[in-house]
């Protein structure tokens, strides 16, 4: 009996030690997690001024006066997408078939105006045609006379803007046409750059815009000249 009692006590002691070790390990894990969370919270407290500054800046920006926006309908969104897809797509297709450049980077800026913001004065045929013509012409001429230097690039764009301004034909993408013309020497074509891709490409895009907007019962152009 004494032997059994001593064996039982030994077993109980072993179990007690095991349970004690497990509890100590649990306490250690809890302590580590608590310490980690405490450090994180202290770090967050340090970062609070930055977060407060960001939130204050956002709230201040939200209080700024907003520009008046037209009512946006799903029909207008779909028509704008289809018009741009058709205009750029047909022009690009003709360029691939005829194997000649008919697209400029600035035409990508013209597309939102004539297919989306078609009521804007900047999107009317006079502005589109005359603006790109002046931009291409000035860019090529300045390149021919002065070459490509930092001030000639600035001069070409500034002169294009000036001429568009005095002829009432402001068209923002045409400033990019002037830049491309002087930077690349008219894509290496010289004065032919004015005809193709500038005038040929913009004529195709504008023709498609007029037909597409008329078929979609959009009021475009508001005026021709």
Question: Can you describe this structure?
Answer:
By secondary structure, this protein is mainly α. The protein is built from 7 helices and no strands. Helix 3 runs parallel beside helix 7, helix 4 packs antiparallel against helix 5 and helix 4 runs parallel beside helix 6. The longest helix is centred in the first third of the chain and has 61 residues. It is globular. The termini are far apart.
Any descriptors?
globular, 225 residues, mainly alpha
Structure summary:
It contains 7 helices and no strands.
Question: What is the N-to-C succession of helices and strands?
Answer: HHHHHHH
Unreliable residue runs? none
Largest sheet at a glance? none
Number of helices: 7
What is the strand tally?
Answer: 0
Distance between the termini: 119 Å
Classify the beta-strand content into a percent band: under 5%
Task: Give the averaged pLDDT, no decimals.
Answer: 83
Secondary structure layout:
Blueprint: H1 2-62, H2 74-98, H3 107-115, H4 125-146, H5 150-166, H6 173-184, H7 192-215
């Amino acid at each position: 009996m004494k032997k059994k009692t001593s064996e039982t006590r030994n077993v109980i002691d072993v179990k007690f030690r095991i349970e004690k070790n497990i509890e100590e390990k649990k306490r250690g894990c809890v302590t580590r997690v608590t310490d980690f969370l405490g450090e994180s919270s202290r770090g967050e407290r340090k970062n609070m001024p930055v977060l407060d500054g960001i939130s204050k800046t956002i709230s201040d920006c939200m209080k700024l006066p907003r520009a008046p926006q037209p009512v946006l309908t799903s029909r207008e969104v779909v028509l704008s997408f289809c018009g741009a897809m058709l205009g750029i797509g047909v022009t690009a297709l003709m360029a691939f078939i005829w194997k000649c450049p008919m697209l400029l980077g600035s035409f990508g800026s013209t597309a939102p105006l004539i297919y989306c913001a078609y009521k804007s004065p900047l999107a009317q045929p006079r502005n589109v045609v005359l603006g790109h013509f002046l931009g291409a012409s000035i860019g090529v001429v300045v390149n021919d006379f002065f070459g490509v230097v930092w001030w000639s690039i600035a001069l070409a764009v500034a002169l294009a803007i000036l001429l568009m301004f005095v002829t009432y034909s402001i068209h923002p993408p045409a400033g990019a046409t002037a830049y491309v013309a002087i930077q690349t020497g008219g894509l290496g074509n010289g004065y032919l750059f004015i005809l193709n891709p500038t005038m040929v490409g913009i004529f195709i895009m504008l023709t498609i815009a007029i037909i597409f907007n008329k078929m979609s019962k959009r009021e475009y152009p508001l005026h021709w000249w």
